[in-house]
């Protein structure tokens, strides 16, 4: 089980790196749950850290159903140097639309660099806004030939992943994804006390921001003490698996 931390600046990315995170996921929280950062920030983070052991990731945003727009966003991300690309399926209304959008993202990324990991991302709290279900996300990820499927929370009002989906639902999601050869990332206001449960569910990647920020508020800055404690706890649980 790897840890993904989402900084919004080079300074925060350095803190995450120094604390030993596996994946540095550059995002822009002013543009939503999976808000896209700027190419110059992504390039600056990668140049500043310059560590081949670190995996750099970028989000493309909470996307409308516009495959061409998503393709150009994906090209911007991979050409900036990231190895993980997450696309948030916010505007796609059904599996067919989701496959259309993600197939465009996958082709763009793989044409540029076949080693890039493409993540079909959706929302655990999908029922709050009429989004795609976790089962639909698995189907979309598999049909589009994505590498990973992820759920986060779209509405950031203090409710967590576990308020939206219970352990059984999350376990079924992970099992369905693994059965189709997909890795799984789970996020959404999760904290260190959730790590054992996330490991039991079978998450391959755990994504956080608020859990490692001052006051557990994603709008504040990443706290190096919280980040280090979170990563140590995750590593201990992963080592015991």
From TrEMBL:
What UniProt keywords apply to this chain's record, in alphabetical order? Lyase, Schiff base
Q: Which SUPFAM superfamilies match?
A: Ribulose-phoshate binding barrel
Report the enzyme's class at the first EC level: lyase
InterPro entries this protein is in? 4HFCP_synth, RibuloseP-bd_barrel
Query: What's a Gene Ontology MF term here?
Result: lyase activity
Q: Where is the signal peptide?
A: none
Q: What are the EC numbers? A: 4.2.3.153
Q: Which reaction does it catalyse?
A: 2 D-glyceraldehyde 3-phosphate = 4-(hydroxymethyl)-2-furancarboxaldehyde phosphate + phosphate + 2 H2O
Does the record's keyword annotation contain tRNA-binding?
A: no
The UniProt entry, under NCBIfam families, shows: PRK02227.1-3
Query: What is the role of the protein in this entry?
Result: Catalyzes the formation of 4-(hydroxymethyl)-2-furancarboxaldehyde phosphate (4-HFC-P) from two molecules of glyceraldehyde-3-P (GA-3-P).
Its recorded name reads: (5-formylfuran-3-yl)methyl phosphate synthase
Taxonomic source organism: Chromobacterium piscinae
Q: What is the lineage of its organism?
A: Bacteria, Pseudomonadati, Pseudomonadota, Betaproteobacteria, Neisseriales
